Amino acid sequence: MSELTNTMRTTALAALAAQGVFFAGCQSGATSDRGEPSAGVLAGSQPSSADEYESWLRANYGKREVLVPMRDGVSLHTVIYEPRPNAEVLDDGPYPIMIHRTPYGAGPYGSEYRTRMGPHPNYARDGYIFVYQDVRGKYLSEGDFVNMTPHVADKRGPSDIDESTDAFDTIAWLLEDVEDHNGRVGMWGISYPGFYSAASMIDAHPNLVAVSPQAPIADWWYDDFHHHGALFLPHGFHFLSTFGRPRPEPTARGRRPRAFEYPTRDGYDFYLDHVRTLESLRSDEYVGMEIDFWNKIIEHPNRDEFWASRDIVPHLRRVAPNVLVVGGWFDAEDLWGPLKIYESVEEKNPAVNNKLVMGPWRHGGWARASGESLGDAYFAPGVSEFYRVNIEQPWFGYHLKGAGSRPNVAEAMIYETGGNRWHGFDQWPPAEIEARSLYFGNRADADGIAGSLSFDPPTHTADRSDSFVSDPNRPVPYTETATVRMAATYMTEDQRFASRRPDVLVYRTEPLEEDITLAGPLTAKLFVSTTGTAADWVVKLIDVHPGDAEDTPATRDGKTEAGYQMMVRSEVIRGRFRNSHEEPEPFVPGEVAEIELPLQDVLHTFKKGHRIMVHVQSTWFPMVDRNPQTYLENPYFAEEGDFVAHTHRVHISQRHPSRLDVRVIDQSTLRLTADPRFDPVRGYELLNEN
Fold this sequence. Notes:
Radius of gyration: 26 Å
Oligomer: single chain
Low-confidence stretches: 1-45
């Protein structure tokens, strides 16, 4: 073991010894905390508050903390909660092991207990052995932390380590050390822990039988900090300005040892008037050069090996036999990840029982919220409870405990927004979809304010176009919310504020004569030109509610459902990557170029009387950093004089049919796949009361 590793271990032990914690297997005479239930708490009582829940946990679960050795000599700090003898849980044991690997801290450390166990507090009642682990280089684990640990496909010795080897070694150690287990191991995680779940199930340990990557990061070029090469500025900077600070030695300190102090709570003002250029964020006035991964973002503007090596999708082979991928349709952080991980597991592991769940949630909303509404959008009561009771908990119970019959969970459990129903499909996307296109119509041919949008292709041969002036010094805001972070609800926000901007092109259908449901992937195909050499392209799909729409429980003061322009899906591409993400190229001024932009999947019904609307724009600030519209080898080094206004055009003709390619599913198919356990109006909780 290296001298550095020994020093880290000593520091970790000293940090916890000060809190009265001793490590089993690392100190002579160490013992586990698996005694009888403590006096004063009725183990069988039903906890009704957070304090009572913690008391119940203490009475029925023992806690110990260990350093688990990896094959290269590094040890990972691990917290284990085990049912006590005679614990008042539903099963008498032996128990399955549930693992959660995280960079956010496996604590609380010492004598304190977690306020919830497992994916949801109900799991503790079922009886599991819960294991929480600090990943390499975080909190009290040894080693060096590497963001989105690259997978090592060709392992030749104990020094070739990644998240799959760390998970394998952890499971092997637990099976030897932990008592009263049934030999079955499960794993779950949301967001970054979702990445660790996905990466950990590659070349899976034989005892790892069920894994649920939830809102998993899969590739930071397409999720979280980048979308098709465009930098999601407030999300990346806000996260890394705290999470990205170096940890020179193991510590039990909190996730945010030193939060960045913004001079204003208005992100639009901060990034436009205070910061101006990205390079200035690395000055001593802000975070300096201390945040290594932020420096890496600035230094790697293209999809080079630095980013490609952090893509977990190509490596998802020989995974655990049962996989449940979970995501939210309105996850502002990680929507690409769950869809691509499900797709990759399906493609590379045909024998695996692979399932997908997509609900109308924000990031992690299935575990943290009711799912009844999000921002301006209203769905139905009990959306999250339906998932927890009918999908997740019985799925883990069946595969890890052998409890009950095989749960009634289809291959793809998908929530239909607009129609507000759960559906069970045999595959995703559904086999019954029909490819169609929504073509843009020239604004001059319509009302002069909005161009037309229809399933009929353009018939005119003469080239026509709609134009707008894009000024990076007066960018289109992405939200009306004043925040320095990425607004979590922007994906359902009313878009009327953007429709009224002269630098946003608007295309819309006539009021629909019947319901239309889009299912599966969306792809914008634009034919564009610009007077400049660089530009971003943003496309949004919007559901325009009629003028007589009634308000819902989600309607806030000063808002109205009448005319609500609900954003259904949106995406951006940095135009330099239109032909290659690895080899960018400038636009030739005045020359028509084709842009193909995947918008990710949907299952959404546009109701009779609603309109389908599409926006096209070039700024989306401050969520997307400003494109100077002057081509530079590295646009992140742009100086103030590089930011120039230019005229952009979207071309519309038989030769240049700008459009949105969609997939339409028949209403009769939707009725057949609707889950009868969920009512589109009364929801799930109310249905259960009767």
